[in-house]
């Protein structure tokens, strides 16, 4: 009717006969305050867990755990951490490159990164400290879980003295750890094979057709044959990464521009994937189908592969099926990928109880220093 005012939302009613507002749950009554809505969500453990598991990065997870004891309890739960890692695998921050004849080991960041991890890379000094001025040679051993293990050689005839050190680039101010030294013959120190530790077993390519398996728990060794059609004539076309559950190994093999991924679990080999390199790197091949690929390094759990093609280092993301050039090297000896550490290092609870307000935790006393 003329003179009647429609409600702003067009829901009917007049200015003189206003309808009560709808609640967020759809019923009539006063609208709930935003703080009450937030409490309704955050006080529900299931909803809170679903929120925290989506923060994306271990650094964000640590900050979330610092809110209060309850949040810390959820974030540090083992089942939660397993799920978090499945949703957000540790990110490759970069890689160390060791030249064959010249230059020190240097770090190459993987860019671009999300802002959260780009800040980590900017703040971190990835340079490696020198162990001893009398040391003849430094060799990288492995990068694992945010740590870098290196071996320092003093060559003495007929034996080498080797000291092992662990350095922690992501832990500002943490000193180098020196591990017990070894004394090896020149023949022993010169050994080099593509081996991997999975569970309690070491797997290593040893011959044209066999893989040696050393069971550390049972102190016995055995051999398993290579998958059908795979040979180890060219060792730089094969690599052994660990399986996801630590109960076996993958075998990555390149043949005729095809990258084959095999899984050994139990007594059999299973071909789990085949990637045609010519299809995903057509822009890099430049109509040269005769180019050769070699495998430089394979990430744990078969997540990525570093390849070399005509002095170019390529990064292959197996899950996303993407390949990109990350560096050009004329004197490459080895690559050592450096991953974001996992699991995260959570705040350390102090002896004083957390402060509470109305029965809900509001803050937490924690130690700001990163601890291992």
TrEMBL record:
It holds the Pfam family Beta-prop_AT5G49610-like. InterPro entries: AT5G49610-like_b-prop, F-box-like_dom_sf. Residues 195-346 form the F-box protein AT5G49610-like beta-propeller domain. Residues 1-29 are annotated as: Disordered. Transmembrane segments: none annotated. This is F-box protein AT5G49610-like beta-propeller domain-containing protein. The lineage of its organism: Eukaryota, Viridiplantae, Streptophyta, Embryophyta, Tracheophyta.
């Amino acid at each position: 009717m003329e003179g009647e005012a429609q409600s702003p939302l067009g829901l009917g009613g007049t200015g003189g006969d206003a309808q009560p507002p709808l609640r967020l749950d759809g019923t009539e009554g006063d609208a709930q305050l935003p703080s009450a809505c937030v409490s309704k969500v955050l006080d529900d453990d299931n909803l809170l867990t679903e929120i925290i598991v989506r923060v994306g990065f271990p650094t964000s997870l640590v900050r979330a755990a610092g809110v209060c004891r309850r949040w810390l309890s959820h974030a540090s739960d083992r089942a939660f951490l397993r799920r978090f890692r499945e949703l957000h695998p540790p990110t490759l921050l970069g890689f160390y490159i060791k030249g064959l004849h010249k230059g020190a080991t240097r770090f190459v960041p993987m860019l671009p990164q999300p802002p959260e991890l780009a800040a980590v890379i900017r703040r971190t000094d990835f340079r490696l400290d020198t162990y001893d001025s009398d040391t003849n040679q430094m060799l990288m051993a492995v990068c694992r879980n945010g740590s870098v293990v290196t071996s320092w050689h003093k060559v003495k005839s007929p034996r080498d003295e080797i000291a092992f050190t662990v350095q922690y680039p992501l832990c500002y101010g943490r000193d180098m750890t020196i591990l017990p030294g070894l004394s090896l013959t020149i023949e022993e120190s010169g050994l080099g094979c593509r081996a991997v530790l999975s569970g309690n077993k070491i797997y290593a390519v040893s011959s044209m057709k066999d893989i040696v398996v050393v069971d550390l728990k049972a102190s016995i060794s055995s051999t398993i044959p290579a998958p059908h059609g795979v040979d180890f004539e060219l060792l730089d076309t094969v690599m052994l990464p660990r399986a996801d559950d630590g109960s076996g190994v993958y075998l990555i093999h390149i043949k005729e521009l095809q990258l084959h991924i095999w899984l050994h679990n139990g007594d059999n080999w299973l071909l789990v994937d085949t990637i045609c390199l010519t299809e995903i790197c057509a822009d890099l091949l430049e109509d040269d189908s005769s180019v050769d690929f070699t495998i430089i390094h394979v990430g744990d759990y078969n997540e990525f592969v570093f390849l070399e093609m005509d002095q170019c280092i390529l990064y292959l993301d197996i899950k996303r099926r993407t390949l990109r050039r990350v560096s050009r090297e004329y004197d490459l000896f080895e690559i050592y990928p450096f991953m974001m550490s996992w699991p995260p290092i959570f705040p350390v609870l102090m002896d004083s109880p957390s402060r509470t307000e109305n029965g809900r935790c509001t803050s937490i006393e924690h130690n700001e220093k990163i601890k291992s």
